[in-house]
Amino acid sequence: MEQEGYSCVLCKGGATHVSRKRGVSPLLGWLEDGLDMSGFSAADKIVGKAAAMLFALGGVKAVYAPVMSEKAAALLEKQKVAAFYGQTVPAVINRAGDGICPMEQAVSGLEDPSKAPEVLRGALAALRAQAEPKNCKSDV
Fold first, then answer.
1. Is the whole-model pTM more than 0.85?
2. How far apart are CA 89 and CA 100, in angstroms?
């Protein structure tokens, strides 16, 4: 995974799916494309509760990450998905390093993984809207 620069890898038998996309985008894409992840093992750079919900929803049997949030580990255990990690952290931090990841915030109150894709798509759309340049008006 690291040698090839992948952010997320799924493996089962001879089948492998890889992505270099960031965050939960690979998982949302695979779910939207109808990929049957049942029985796959996964490796991801960082797994927070948002990604854990998507792995559980997809039917993944095991997840490894060098860094996993405590809530992700607990959710995977509750969903009967084997969780392996290098270390746990209280929460996944945002890319700026100054707060909680927005995807983690979006699913913080969710317990049902089936609701996660819709909530996460909404959170991603809101982030994209914030990043778009605003139309400027002049007082000419």
1. yes
2. 12
